Here is the input.
Amino acid sequence: MKVLFDTNVVLDLLLNRDEFVGDASLLISKVDAGEIDGFLCATTITTIHYLLEKSLNSSQAAIHTKTLLNIFNIAPVSSEILEKALNPKFDDYEDSVLHEAGLGVDVDSIVTRDYTGFKHAAVPVYTPKELIAVLALELKY
Here is the structure.
């Protein structure tokens, strides 16, 4: 399954957000193990690096960024993606860019805690808990 991870899910793990870290950790470990073909939008990498630099330090931000680059595939952002993301169906341009970048690499779904930001997505959108349940069902069959 090719899954595009929204920035918030990755940050849940990296910033150890109590309520969400368990689900994020489980899903990202499945990417690391090759059980999920995980993708991050190129803009997610820059956003995460910036936020980690602010909350941790430059050295830690670089270490975490390299780890993400080793684990995840990257959905590129081109001028074509940016133009397609000017979609009036999406209220948030950043979500639209992420969505279009995911479509550009043919993801099967998006995992996010911001479900409403992707209500017009062209692929299924799951919360982390929902994706964990979907993966569990796939294992049964």
